[in-house]
Design brief:
The chain is of the alpha+beta class. The chain folds into two domains: 116 residues, no CATH class; 50 residues, no CATH class. The chain is built from five helices and nine strands. Strand 7 and strand 8 form a beta hairpin. Helix 2 packs antiparallel against helix 5. The protein is rod-shaped and about 75 Å long.
């Protein structure tokens, strides 16, 4: 998701005095970074809740990254990396039937699955009745959740609600007298 505000600044500049016009890019940069960080946090919160993992795990695994805006381009990016969350991050518990886990925010059981403690508590399941081959089980894919229409709509709503007040605060911050 990209947040860009270059084309909207022309309308705003008409109502400002010369001193405010000089400070507008810096105030916009500050407001964009403030708003982008807030939108990013909101998206991570929603995706973590929907996936059934902690926000810390999403960030630690590298599924969520932000790129702050620079003064020259005024674009804030929220990037998400493609890949599935390993089932070991979804609180797996070995049971008689298989492995109980909380992927996708609901308690589920992967029948016939097992946890291998020697390689970091990963969850596996046999493909056939024989000993091998086995497959590693994965949980939700955060990229799809970040790109979901509902998540994007909520982010845009928050952006529309937050950015104007942050921009006003930024203009006040950069144009007020020091001292």
């Amino acid at each position: 998701m990209q947040i860009s505000v270059k084309h909207d600044l022309d309308k705003l500049q008409r109502n400002l005095n010369d001193f405010q016009k000089k400070k507008l890019p810096k105030a916009t940069w500050w407001a964009l970074n403030q708003t982008g960080a807030r939108v990013g946090r909101q998206m991570v919160k929603e995706v973590a809740k929907e996936a059934g993992v902690s926000q810390k795990d999403l960030k630690r695994r590298g599924f969520y990254v932000t790129a702050r805006a620079k003064l020259k381009d005024l674009v804030f990016e929220v990037r998400s990396r493609y890949g599935a969350i390993p089932l070991k991050d979804c609180r797996p518990v070995q049971t008689k039937v298989g492995v109980s886990h909380k992927a996708w925010g609901k308690k589920q059981v992967a029948e016939g699955a097992f946890i291998v403690n020697s390689i970091g508590r990963h969850v596996f399941k046999r493909r056939t009745g024989k000993r091998l081959p086995i497959d590693k089980l994965h949980g939700p894919i955060p990229f799809k959740m970040f790109e979901a229409i509902t998540t994007q709509q909520r982010a845009i709503e928050l952006l529309k609600r937050t950015f104007p007040e942050r921009l006003a605060k930024g203009l006040e911050r950069y144009t007020r007298g020091r001292g």
